[in-house]
Amino acid sequence: MTLVNRFSFLDNGSDLICSMFYSGSKWKLEIGCTLLxxxxxxxxxxxxxxxxxxxxxxxxxLPGDTAVITGADKKDLAENQKExxxxxxxxxxxxxxxxxxxxxxxSCVARLNKSVNYELNEHLLVRNNPWMIDTLASFDYxxxxxxxxxxxxxxxxxxxxxxxxxxxxxxKMAKELTGTFENTLIDLNIPEFRLxxxxxxxxxxxxxxxxxxxxxxxxELAKREVSLQTPVGKGEIVRIERNPIFINPATGKRxxxxxxxxxxYTMMPQIPWLEPSTGGVRTGSLIHxxxxxxxxxxxxxxxxxxxxxxxxxxxxxxxxxxxxxVFRYDLEIFNETGxxxxxxxxxxxxxxxxxxxxxxxxxxxxxxK
Length: 369
Description:
The protein is α+β, with helices and mostly antiparallel strands. It has helices at 3-21, 26-42, 53-57, 71-85, 101-112, 122-127, 131-137, 141-146, 171-182, 309-316, and strands spanning 89-91, 96-97, 158-160, 165-167, 184-189, 194-199, 202-208, 211-212, 216-219, 224-227, 233-241, 257-259, 265-267, 273-276, 287-289, 299-301, 305-307, 324-330, 332-334, 340-342, 365-366.
């Protein structure tokens, strides 16, 4: 008997028990207690039996006074049980903090790869368990502060708890997810300060970001004066850094804490950074979270694309290495009502003839008519 049918039977049986209690008959009271104990035992999950998300989240009530399982129901039930029993899974055996999250996920992938007929990786596993992305994104400092919770070091937060179940995708789902990754595009319109995630040409997410400033500056890391503009062009994600080191590019000095917009100091969050190439060149302009969201929607950085902390987790699990990216400079956009809007030319591309580092970059610059 599945958990769904157990609940249905319990709901129907409970009405029967209540009528026995208030009948005033002693023997009916005893029967009611006996039935209550029996029904309670029926609702308990046997030790070691994996629970599906449907069982956790849904309760169905059958019409009428009794729950009847037909032959067709039994066939469907058997097929569902077979389907779940054939899916490899891991039950988390301890609480996992963010600081240990990636090493634990890597160990899960290694174990599950012994039970599947394809090459499982972190992105496939987590996308098949999307609640994990929601959990990680929820550790955004400012979202927690809105709820009255101060996070000094997000690495101390627990992302997985003992007893959680991680399901590996079956071969069909793994193929679908792989196809989705291959047809994902990270689209950034620099003067609009908007980054979008497209899957099969359909927009799935849209974030406000910050981009590089319109100036040149000496950067100690580069050992020379460089343009701080975020470069235009198309390319792909070429590298991911899951445990980044924080270095001020202007001074070359490493830092461990950050001053938040609300005046609080916290440790730097452990959130992956993405490195894209544009036009086949690794320019050093990364995509990473900022701890100062007041700078989003502005030309503020040393060339990198800054996102919100929660948004960075969503982006990371939608953009594995090889994901296509386009960094464009379109001044003319269309608002929700279809009206043409001309954006501010933050890099002054229309004010004078620009010499691009690569001729192909001109393809991605469109000025207002």
